[in-house]
Amino acid sequence: MQRSKVKIHEFYILVCLLFFLIGTSPSYSQQDKIITYSEGMSIREIAREHLNDANLWIEILKVNNLSDLTELKPGMKLKIPSKTVIAAEKGLTKSLGKIREATKAGAKVLAPGLILNAVRFRDQAISARKNGEWQESVALSEKAFEEAQKALDESISRNDVAVEAVLNDKRGDVEGKKETDLTWKEAPLFSRFVEKEKVRTLSVSTAEIVFRDDSRLRLNENSQAVIQKMRKNIIENKQESVVSLVEGDIYAILSGSPKKKMDIDVPGVITDIKSKNFWINKDKGEVKVANYEGEIALTSAGKTIVLEKNKGSSVLFNRKPAAPKELLPPPSLSLPRHNSIAFKSVKNKSIEFKWTSIKDASGYWIEIAYESSDFHEIIESKWMVKSNEYTTEELNIDGAYYWRVAAIDKYGFPGRKSEQLLVNVTSDFNIPFVTVSNPREGELLQTDSVFVTGETERKAILKINKENVPVGDNGEFKHLVVLKEGENKLDFYIEDPAGNINQFARYASYIAKKDITIETDSSLSGDKENGFKSSSNGFTFSGKTDPDSRIDISSKSDNFRANTYSNIENGKFTINLPLLREHNKFDVMIKTKAGYTAEQKFEVERDINPPVIKIKKQIPDKTASKQYVLEGIISDGYKLVINDEDISLTADHFVKNLDFEYGSNLIKINAEDNVGNVSSYEKEVIFDNKPPKVSKHNLKKVNVKNGGLIDVTIDVEDIAGLKRAAKTVLVIGKESFTGYLKLNRMLNKYEGTITIPSNISGKVSSYTVELEDVLGNNTKFEY
């Protein structure tokens, strides 16, 4: 169903008008506000105070780019969109006034397209306002005002043109046919009808024709009528309209001016209508007329009857009218109650209507109109509802709706209409608001029970751990929950009056009283309980205690304070402390998340002296022994490493068996105390178990005549070093001669001269040199 009526409750508009005219409300300012959020504040109360509507709390979150309430933190600056809200409300009020002014001037007939545009723009502005799109709402309201102004101007300029009727409302298929047309054509909304033009509705379709005097004829489904006559005397301000009912039924609501007359022409029946509210049906050679106000005279086959108020009669073709009969009384409407709110939500998108049953009723006729108690814009018109209830999803625009019901008797006459009740349809697709002030998420409690407190929407259904919890008139709640030791899960279920559901869980833990301790890291150095050492001017105190505990450390002598928190999962902590003196004393205060406390003291000695390495027996520079036992003492030692091998200490004493390799061997000793001070010792040892080796010599087996001198030179290699002299023996014949060679250390060479007596002649047959290094390794070299 297309709509042309302004979609907002008149009472709400009146309130807005008074608000902006008087200007006394302290809730709005002409500028956007910035407030500081503090703990204990209710976001709904903030919205109520600054925006006059607690339900606008969602808009405050949106404008501050917050996704949910848990992101609100004390000290946060919140922007309150007061200026834009005011502008949006003013725009809606201004555009509504101009639309009404244009409608009163006949815009529905004289400028239907423009007035439709105005209404549509305003509908979009209302939708934008509901979605929190305030600037968009302002812009759309301005467009609505401009279109309404154009409609007003055109209506005034066309005030004296020929009278026309307009298709003011349609549902389903509605067609028109001018006198010159050969076929039926679709009749768009706000089509204009002239004399001799036909209009018809097809199955499940209705149409409402509005005349310039605001008289209305509603054609129900499968109906056809001809606009026979439309005349207006501008000078005398008289208007006459005649409509011929071909088939189907018409429900009429006529203007009350005595200078305006409308007749319904039914073939075979002469009507004299002096009623402003009646129903006529023509079907299969029978005409039915039900009158609800004034009188209607029916004449057929020479007989005339008068239908008074709430009377009905039927006329068969060329037969006399039947005697008037009493119409059925109206039913009492029960649900929704007058001026109540009917919610549409994700869970339920339909609205249900109920009324009392009427005796002898074969069905009911329900009509639902948008915002107007005179049913100018009928949204739903359902004929022959069999039960005394009806459900519809057609009310898809928020606003005020009126509804009424008539009982239909067994002859097909609709009875008197019921009273008209107002229902305010509101779309609510948001999960219900709820904030829990106690306990806080993850809070650790010292008691085995807790009062769960907070605030939610009024009239909401609240359950905590599947237990019903009363909600006060102000939305506040308070509920006692018994806790088990350890973590407890609080399941919340909130359902608002619209049927929207919010479900979430909050966790809190009950921690029974126990001893609080600190387990210091084993890596911390110390020589007594709660006594530690450090090799620098600072000390890293680390350990483990209850998770998420506050740890305060202070030194009274140095007026020092520091704090940290233990890890929320494993309770580990680390804190750096200054060491201002050689002996430093600290006090520790631990406070757990559950509020339990404990105290502890500890001392830290500043130690910058490395351990002393004492070798029991001096290590030789050179040795011919492959194995060597290294012994010593490490004073204040904690860790000993010899040649990259960890060596255990026994009462500060150590023993290490060393195996030397031929050549140079480096002995590396590193000692570390328990605060990281390090001492080092290195010694190179030459291991040589091989005799010297001759690499070059000048020995020759020469002939000697009458004695003389023989020079001997031998180059010798040895890593440990050679003795200073080497004995040599040479043989001539049967005589041997002994001499000593002297070591030239620079050249690693033995040099010397052997003196042969003058009485000796002959050839040298052999040389023998005895070589020995400083470690006693020896050999004989023979040539």
Descriptors:
eight-stranded antiparallel β-sheet; mainly beta; 7 helices; 783 residues; single chain; elongated
Written overview of the protein:
The structure is a single chain. The termini are far apart. Helices cover 13% and strands 48% of the residues. The radius of gyration is 57 Å and the shape is elongated. The longest helix is centred in the first third of the chain and has 24 residues, at 134-157. Residues 1-30 and 233-237 have low confidence and may be disordered. Strand 14 (286-300) and strand 15 (303-307) form a beta hairpin.
Structural class by secondary-structure content: mainly beta
Looking at the structure, what is the overall shape?
elongated
Helix content: 10-25%
Average pLDDT, rounded to a whole number, is: 85
Alpha-carbon Rg, integer: 57 Å
Describe the biggest sheet?
15 strands, mixed
Unreliable sequence segments: 1-30, 233-237
Helix and strand arrangement:
Blueprint: H1 10-22, E1 33-36, H2 43-51, H3 57-63, E2 77-80, H4 82-104, H5 107-110, H6 112-130, H7 134-157, E3 165-171, E4 174-177, E5 185-186, E6 192-193, E7 197-201, E8 206-210, E9 216-219, E10 224-233, E11 238-253, E12 260-265, E13 270-283, E14 286-300, E15 303-307, E16 311-316, E17 325-326, E18 333-335, E19 340-344, E20 351-355, E21 361-370, E22 378-385, E23 389-392, E24 399-409, E25 421-427, E26 434-438, E27 443-445, E28 449-456, E29 461-464, E30 467-469, E31 476-482, E32 486-495, E33 501-510, E34 519-520, E35 531-534, E36 538-544, E37 550-555, E38 560-565, E39 572-578, E40 583-591, E41 597-606, E42 612-615, E43 622-623, E44 627-635, E45 639-642, E46 645-647, E47 653-659, E48 663-672, E49 678-687, E50 693-697, E51 703-704, E52 708-717, E53 725-732, E54 735-744, E55 749-756, E56 762-772, E57 778-782
Parallel strand pairs: 11-12, 19-25, 27-33, 35-41, 43-49
Antiparallel strand pairs: 1-2, 3-6, 3-8, 4-5, 4-7, 7-10, 8-9, 9-11, 10-11, 11-13, 13-14, 14-15, 14-16, 16-17, 18-20, 20-23, 21-22, 21-24, 24-25, 26-28, 28-31, 29-30, 29-32, 32-33, 34-36, 36-39, 37-38, 37-40, 40-41, 42-44, 44-47, 45-46, 45-48, 48-49, 50-52, 51-56, 52-55, 53-54, 53-56, 54-55, ...
